[in-house]
Amino acid sequence: MNTLQWVAVVYIAVLILAANLPWITRRILFFLAPSGGEKGAAWRVLEWVLLYGLMLGLGMGLERYFTGTLHPQGGGFYAITLMLFAVFAFPGFVYQYDLRRHLMRRSSREKFQEGLKSTE
């Protein structure tokens, strides 16, 4: 693999990580503790959109660095990259709104059952 291929692989890995960060972290904009104890869905979506813009800018910077120019893109390009970023965010979204709660319920149920066994 040449340098450009390695950069592309690392860039895609960073995209996947960035797309999932808003759903995994509990802090607002990664620094501020939420006042209510739990970060709301609106904050998560805002962070996700901001990270999309940041990653888009990083990709444009890499394109400019490696090719010396920015190729003009139409609206379809940005729609496709936004949807791809949404697909990359799917694991974090599922973890936040489904899997984490399921695992917490399962853990509390197992603790309850262990408590019943210890009282017998």
Taking all residues together, what is the mean pLDDT? 87
The portion of residues assigned to helices is: over 70%
Number of helices: 3
Overall number of strands: 0
Q: What pattern of helices and strands is seen along the backbone?
A: HHH
Strand content: under 5%
Question: First CA to last CA: what distance?
Answer: 63 Å
Largest sheet: none
Q: Could you list the spans in which at least 5 consecutive residues all have pLDDT below 50?
A: none
How many whole angstroms does the radius of gyration measure?
A: 20 Å
Could you say which overall geometry the principal axes of the C-alpha atoms support?
elongated
Structural class of the secondary structure composition?
Answer: mainly alpha
Description:
- This protein has three helices and no strands.
- It is mainly α and 120 residues long.
- The protein starts with a helix and ends with a helix.
- Helix 1 (3-24) packs antiparallel against helix 2 (41-67) and helix 1 (3-24) crosses helix 3 (75-119).
